[in-house]
Amino acid sequence: MTTAQHSAEELEKLAVRAGRDLEEASAQEVLRWAADTFGRRFCVTSSMEDAVVAHLASRALPGVDVVFLDTGYHFPETIGTRDAVAAVMDVNVITITPRQTVAEQDAEYGPRLHDRDPDRCCALRKVAPLEEGLRGYDAWATGLRRDESPTRANTPVVGWDARRRKVKVAPIARWTQDDVERYVAEHGVLTNPLLMDGYASVGCAPCTRRVLAGEDARAGRWAGLGKTECGIHQ
Ligand code: SF4
Question: Which is the closest atom of ligand 1 to the Cα of 205?
Answer without folding.
Answer: 3
